[in-house]
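Flagellar hook protein FlgE
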Amino acid sequence: MSLYGVLRTGVSGMNAQSNKLGTVADNIANANTVGYKRASAEFSSLVLSSGKGSYNSGSVVTNIRYSISQQGPLVFTTSSADLAVQGNGFFVVSDEGGTPYLTRAGSFVPDSEGNLVNTAGYYLMGYPLTNGNPNVTLNSLDGLERVNLANLAMSANPTTQGSLGGNLPIAAALGDTFQSSLIVYDNVGNKVQFNVTFEKMTDFDPLAPANQQWQVTIDGVEPAGWTAGPFALEFDTSGQIVAGAALTPINIPNGQAMTLDLSGMQQLASEYAPLDPIVNGNAPSQVDKVEFGKDGTVYAVYEDGTRIATYRIPLANVPSPDKLTPEAGNVYSASIESGNVQVGFPGQAGLGSILSGALEQSNVDMGEELTAMIEAQRNYTANSKVFQTGSELLDVLMNLKR
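Tokens:
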């Protein structure tokens, strides 16, 4: 056995325990860091070949592992912009230059420009819903934009769709009319009121039931003078609508073409009873608050109660999350070992859900870290004794010639 080998092995052991102490120090320092994932030092032996009459001591190789896939405890906050992932997946964020990263740190707040940014300065990325639901490219982050709340200022949206359900009396006589009013919105948010009039076009004969026809007309109240229709509406002998369920187009003055869905109407032996009038669009209103759905949809809630979907936040994942490359600021980038990034929406394809008003805490266990620190200290001391003994024996050997 070479004494130089003993020194080398002792140094290797001290270096390994120094690495372990380094991970413990980082873990303890970040015990209260939102979204932090603990690091650990794992060891493997490096064995050198030896002859029958001698032994060549090897060394210890340190492998650093990160418990990225282990979820930390969730704590609830009073801020709706605090987001946490419950289950698999990561938020997609970007730095100032637009480079994308993955993170579980969801403590977002609006910056001076309205962008949602976390404590490390990374911007939350999402798909804008200005043109309907986005098409996600599963293996690419193309199409993502910074989630910006400043763009949700005062807004007026024209009505394009509406619906009206209820009952029309089957016993109504030829020429009987029933009327209801609806409020919709034009391009600049002005209220437009119109009457929906149902006029019976056939007599009902209980001895010879047949399909019943109605005529629907739209008459403007404010502004007055505009009309739409007439439209034909038909019910079968069981009172279910069979023709004319969607009235289109209804051209709103200074507005958009509107489709009025009447599929919720029935014709039963009861009085006229309009139900569930629903229209989209809204008058000019300030944003009162922002809500985040579990499916990643970001809603702007206006002062008049209107809720408009503005963004949808995706989640990303990789085949081996523990092999992601950690970067400064609690973010991760994909590596060869982790596999390529896969993108989807919360609740789909094994991805978790997004919780608003919650944060994922560090997954560091302080008791475990303090135990590991004591073990590393003792092992470091033992390895230093090996090095010291080898050094003393080497001095003895060098002094034999004197």
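The domain at 161-279 is CATH 2.60.98.20 (Tick-borne Encephalitis virus Glycoprotein; domain 1).
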